[in-house]
User: What shape does this take?
Amino acid sequence: MAREKQRREPRFDGDGSGDLRADPREDRMAKPKRKGKSGSGKSASGKSASPSSAPPPDDDFDEAPPRAAKAKKAKGGSAFGLGGLVYWGAVLSIWGAIGVGGLFIYHAAQLPPIDTLAVPKRPPNIAILGADGELLANRGDTGGAAVRLGDLPPYLPKAFVAIEDRRFYSHWGVDPIGIARALTRNITGRGGMQGGSTLTQQLAKNLFLTQERTITRKIQEAILALWLEHKYSKDQILELYLNRVYFGSGAYGVEAAAQRYFGHGANQATLAEAAVLAGLMKAPSKLAPDRNPEGATERAAQVVTAMAQEGHITESMAKLALGRPALARRERGAGSINYAADYVMDMLDDTIGAIDQDIIVTTTLDRKLQEVGERSVAEELDKKGDKFGVSQGALVALDPNGAIRALVGGRNYAESQFDRAVSAKRQPGSAFKPFVYLAGLEHGLTPDTVREDGPINVKGWQPENYSHEYFGPVTLTKALALSLNTVAVRVGLEVGPKTVVKTAHRLGVASELQPNASISLGTSEVTPLELVAAYAPFANGGVGVQPHIITRVRTAGGKQLYARKGSSNGRVIEPQYVAMMNSMMEETLSTGTARKAELPGWRAAGKTGTSQDFRDAWFVGYTPHLVAGVWLGNDDNSPTKKVSGGNLPVEVWSRFMKAAHQGVPVAALPSGSWRSASVPDSASPIAPLLNLFSSDPEPESPPPKPSRRRQARDEDEDAAVGSVHGLEALLPPADIPSSQPPRPRRAPAREEKNIFEKLFGG
Assistant: This one.
């Protein structure tokens, strides 16, 4: 019995029918069947089966182990799989961390030592203001000044955070969540290729790295982002970012971009404009609002939506911004303000030297006059340029004290940046004659002095009048008004070409002038700026001016670096000669070559000029309020189709001066006590008629006595007044060929001219 209790019986499975059979595995594994009855280990009576009918004891141990072993194996396999996954995951993570750490250490070693790192200094910006303080242009590598975060509307920086880096204020320079999201979208192809760079990483790239797309650059970018986050606050990083990133069209920083695309500062940006600026970060050139307004608007809508989702703006603000999308400004005119801005930059080198910080330059420029001058030149050339074969022009306007009020260097700055107002040297033609006649007046002549208008020969050079006509004896006033070449040459030879050159230089012409016989006809080249400046003494009473455009320079912080003090070249014309010259040049506009000049209510004076073969056409005119000069011609010095100083330039000048004198109180030109002895009242419109009916020659008024200073200065002149030797000693200019084959001309008798010729000179 004890043995029975200790015996372990084999396990059997019943089929539920009372027929008990061994487990099928037992049948497969059992030895060949033995003869005898098979059944349970007990009889029906409950007694144990006989030993002969029971399986061997070993079978008891052969049946149970297979299932137990399998269960044990399954249990152990499950534990091994989970544990192995954890184990090998930990191993791989450790090695991955070691590998990433090694990469970081390697690439960090390629960077400068952290303790020597510093944010590169931002390239300085030069803000150029008009006389009224309005921003006219920016110069510098960035295209705009730096701005402080606190000076911007709150929604502007939030727009960049919302669309570029929503977790900017929570991550530590690198955003693993953003990187994972970008990788997921890139792998699945949803949303296009995306990067996981934070604003800090983008700033690091702009400050320290190149734009190449390599794993090395990305790793270094992450390292530098961590350094920036450690060294600067979030607001400091955001401010650096907004002032350094590229917005397209040469604009670096949000201030430059706002000025470039919307024409005002970033502190005045609307919500819709802020969204456009933030949207540019995705593709500055592709989404520029002035070139792709549809794309810029679509991207801006995404920015506004993101801002609303992040709670940066209210729903009503979002609807308003989406309903009124921002529009980029249109360029005003041909961009001529850039000619003036370039000139300002040239002058800054001599004014304050090297520039190493943002500065603000206040100028003498008037934006209104600049725009009027630009339109006057451009519209005249657009309307008549093709017809007259002229393609370029320039305009300069100065206050009588030399302050530059407008400077137009060409037809269109975008097409040509060459500044013809400042840099182009061209022959002034008859516009140079006032210096000749002034030299004559200073040597004893008067406006009423009579000289012969007739053929003249200087060593084979035979200058002729524009009309190929001669008027015989004429006064200097009429000779200047009608621009008679022969009289100008005679006066120039009387006083001597060197005297003429000295006179022009004294008044403000800076270019080298050739002291030959042709100098009286303006054959030496000058720039429009210096010629206009040399006319200023006639308008201001005889004081030589220094043309200037900069009045003050200060740093962005307000420190003054330069302030112009009143300065001039002193008196360069005695008052009586100023009065004489003004009366003579007023006649040019009333009866002479500039009769088309129109300036209602004002008495203006000036002189036209046309160079040989109609290559250059000039008119310089002035009032007590403004001195302005116009040049028209072609850059290749080719002849125009008979453009003269009396037609197109006068039209440009009149259009400009009318606008410039609106609302300005009328004033008279400087005049002294001089009055013509033969003309009782030079201002009287019937004064010229008095001489028509006089049979006696016109008496000359006694010449005023030159001042002692003038006498001392002229004692060394080598050309004696009225000496024939002055003619003999001068050689004709090599670059001025003789006129058409000499044709004998007969000076028409005085009595043969009709009254209109007498009054208007033909």
Observations:
- Residues 1-65, 68-76, 678-762 have pLDDT under 50 and may be disordered.
- Residues 495 and 721 are 5 Å apart (CA to CA).
- The two ends are 161 Å apart (CA to CA).
